[in-house]
Specification:
seven-stranded parallel beta sheet, 9 helices, alpha/beta, binds 2-phosphoglycolic acid
C-alpha cells in the first residue's frame, strides 16, 4: 500500500483525478470502477469540470459501480443510480450502454450477480477502482466478516453502516437494509485501486486496514494483498497510524525520484 497524506481532501481529489486523466489519455476506453458516498464527490466534480472546460472525452469509457441498494428504484433520490447521474453521468458523455450497476431486481439475482462479474472480466477488468472506506472498514458494501474472495452478491447492512448512512434519510423514510455489492474478490481484480479517506471518523478503519492483520473483520485490510493500491488520507484520518512519519517520508522520497 502506498500512503499519501494530503493537506486537504481537495488535494486528494486533485491527485486521484490527475491519475484518471493520465490513464484516460493513454486508454480512451478506460474501465472505471466507481464508488458513491461523500468521499468521491470531489473527484467527480473535477471530472465534470475537465469535460466541460477542457473537452475531455469520456465517450468510450466503461463504468461499473460498486454497489446499489435493494428496494430503491433508479429514480429514488437515495439510490446510487440517482447519485451517479446527479454527480457525474448527467454531465459527462458516457453512453448509457457503457454504464453498469450491480443487479438489484427480479428473479435469479444470484445468476445476475455472477454475470456482473463476468461482464467486468469480458471488458478486460477494471483499470482503476475508486474506493472509499466505511468507518467499520467495509469496502463497497462488503461488511465485516465478508468472504475475502467473494464475488458480487447481496449483503445485509450492519447497524453501524445503517447509522452512518441515516444522515441521508429524512425521518420516516425507509432505509434499505440490503444491497448488492461487488465482492472483495471482484475489487481485488482491479488493476489499480485509489482509496480516499477523509475525516477522523475513518481513523480507526485506516489504522486497522493499513497496520492490522488481514482480516474479514476489517474488509479493507485485504488491500494489503493488492500491489497497486494507493491510499489518499488527510491528517485527521491518519492520526492512529503508528508509522505515519515513515509513510510521509516514503512519499517524499518517491516524489523526489519521480522529479
Ligand atoms: P462516505 O462512505 O464516503 O460517505 O464516508 C464511504 C463508505 O461507506 O464506503
Amino acid at each position: 500500500m502506498q500512503i499519501i497524506v494530503c493537506e486537504t481532501p481537495d488535494e486528494g481529489a486533485d491527485l486521484v483525478t490527475r491519475e484518471i486523466l493520465r490513464r484516460l489519455e493513454s486508454k480512451p476506453d478506460l474501465v472505471l470502477g466507481l464508488a458513491t458516498g461523500s468521499t468521491p464527490i470531489g473527484v467527480y466534480e473535477r471530472l465534470v469540470r475537465l469535460h466541460r472546460e477542457k473537452g475531455v472525452d469520456f465517450s468510450r469509457v466503461r463504468t461499473f459501480n460498486l454497489d446499489e441498494y435493494i428496494g430503491l428504484s433508479a429514480e429514488h433520490p437515495q439510490s446510487y443510480r440517482f447519485f451517479m447521474r446527479r454527480h457525474l453521468f448527467d454531465a459527462l458523455n458516457i453512453p448509457a450502454a457503457n454504464i453498469h450497476f450491480p443487479p438489484t431486481e427480479g428473479p435469479e439475482l444470484q445468476r445476475k450477480c455472477r454475470e456482473y462479474d463476468e461482464k467486468i472480466q469480458a471488458v478486460g477488468g477494471i483499470d482503476i477502482q475508486i474506493l472509499g472506506i466505511g468507518s467499520n472498514g467495509h469496502i463497497g458494501f462488503n461488511e465485516p466478516t465478508s468472504s475475502l474472495r467473494s464475488g458480487t452478491r447481496v449483503k445485509t447492512l450492519t447497524e453501524k453502516t445503517l447509522r452512518d448512512n441515516s444522515r441521508f434519510y429524512s425521518s420516516g423514510e425507509t432505509q434499505p437494509h440490503l444491497a448488492t455489492t461487488m465482492g472483495i474478490g471482484t475489487i481485488l481484480g482491479a488493476k489499480r485501486i485509489l482509496l480516499q479517506a477523509f475525516g477522523e471518523k475513518k481513523a480507526d478503519a485506516i489504522r486497522a486496514i493499513v497496520e492490522g492483520p488481514i482480516s474479514a473483520f476489517w474488509p479493507g485490510s485485504v488491500l494489503q494483498l493488492h500491489p497497486e493500491t494507493t491510499l489518499f488520507l488527510v491528517r485527521a484520518s491518519a492520526t492512529r497510524l503508528e508509522m505515519l512519519e515513515y509513510y510521509v517520508r516514503t512519499h517524499h522520497y518517491h516524489r523526489e525520484l519521480e522529479e
